[in-house]
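User: Some background: our group keeps a shared notebook of sequences we're curious about, and every so often someone picks one and asks for a predicted structure to add to the entry. Today it's my turn. The entry only has the sequence so far, pasted here. Could you supply the structure so I can complete it?
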Amino acid sequence: MEERSFLKPALSLAMLAAGLVMSAVGVDWFAPVGVRAAWYAVAFLPVGLGVIREAWECAAKGDVFSEFMLMSVASVGAFAIGEFPEAVAVMLFYCVGETLQDMAVDRARDNIRSLMEFRPDKAFVVDGGTVVEKKPEDVRVGEVIEVSPGGRVPLDGTLMSADAAFDTAALTGESMPRTISEGGEVLAGMVATDSVSRIRVSRPAGQSAVARILSMVEEASGRKAPAELFIRRFARIYTPVVISLAALTVLVPYVWSLVDSAFAYDFGTWFYRALIFLVISCPCALVISIPLGYFAGIGAASRFGVLFKGGNWLDAITKVDTVVFDKTGTLTRGEFSVVKIDAAQPDELLGAVAAIEKGISHPIAKAVMKYAGEPGIDAADLKNMPGYGLTATVKGHRWAVGTLKLLDREGVAYPAELARVPETIVACACDGRYAGCLVLADTLKADAKEAVSSLHKSGVGRIEILSGDRQALVDKVAAELRVDRGCGDLLPEGKVARIDKLKREGRNVAFVGDGINDAPVLALADVGVAMGGLGADMAIETADVVIQTDQPSRVAAAIGIGRRTRRIVRQNIVFAIGVKVAVMALGLAGLANMWGAVFADVGVALLAVLNATRIVWRTHPKPFPKGGA
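Assistant: Of course. Here's the predicted structure to add to the notebook entry:
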């Protein structure tokens, strides 16, 4: 599609270049005005017809003075005074700029479709002694559904079977599976991890957790309108002023000739000046340099693993004064590792736990095995108790390995402070006595502290963490990173409420997340930033900016590149408008002919383009101070 979008401009460019060459070398058959007019008219059609049609459609809707109308009038005026190459060039430059901008806009996300794909499309209903497959919409409240290990829960309900572990990352972003007791609430979107679970449906499909996320994304997307490009707003004032001045260029001298009989009025002379004025007024420098500036910014950001989904988000990110991070998978690695062994005989305990956990698919077991390696011993009489842990015999000793609930169940006394440990622990008992524990934690990414420090240096006034993990664990991470606030135990609704509150306080909020559960918050924030390396597809689709390297420190680099881009684009705007006004004044006074106008226009455009390319000169993704370039 991108190749096809450049075919028409390429054809016009080829014909324009060929025409200029033939005129320069004096090709005989190309000399007649009619031949040249026909040649350039054909070159004009591929790029001009679409713009003229847009001008007509905008005028029909009441938007007469659009940038499409300015381009149309300027190019037709150039044809009228015989400046055929300029007529084609005016429209060609405009169309190339618009095509570049459209390539960014076309990266739009279809987050609603992504959510629909995520929602489970079948449920297994227990009907007497059989299990019947149904669509979730056909399942009635009160019916019992069955979910196998690895299966996604299709409807909200109450757990009817024994305690079971569920992966809640899709809803809460929690890094560890959550153990839900019999009678506890299970939400649609959770994944059963270790046992077959039976759930009594408590809400219809339209009111499930997934349906609520879908509704929030729809509402949040509707509340966030794309930033309107400057050239569109500028044209609403600039175009009518220019056309009015061109008309006055013809009319005012005529009226003056009626007042002063000594003044000789020549319609052809003043009409020619009016058309020159229109051609001079064509804002080619703006048309080229503004999209180029944004795309240079997008290109510079991509070199550092940051993808902006359009130039409007480069503008939006410069206004951010509050950055809110999801915790798991964004500031942390999203995978657990053993960080401490608290035991009198740590090697013996680790070996026994590894022997018991060997072959178990639970994330905790995988983390232990990764840390311990192959145990070299085997466990016997292994018994798995979902929601509690494991018991087994190792070297003639009976071990219990799992949660504190398992030790309570086994009647084993343990230190009271274990209940206050914020990290995940694997409590161990040997022959009915407490033997120690393994402490597991989702460790911070290598550049997490740098991310927070860089944001503070770049002038971001407030940094927060939102997470579905326990508040104690979030508080510990918040203190370690020195952020302003950490909020834990949050479902998607809680995250949305917090972002909404910050926005009502007048803050411009960027939210950085990576999970499916983050989609509503990414859509609601002024700028949604997704961690793209390991992030969920839905989060990437919903976000406005994607950090492809999975490094949170790149958020500060994204803000810096946005500020540099905005500063250079503003320089181009001021420079281009200033020069245009000066040259237009000379044109009205008869001191600038068409060639002078073309030279000034092309010169301004060239300087603006060169200035725009400065954006890519910086070779390191360092944070840019507020207002700096």
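Suggested note for the entry: Confidence is low (pLDDT under 50) at residues 104-115, 220-228. The first strand starts at residue 123 and ends at 127.
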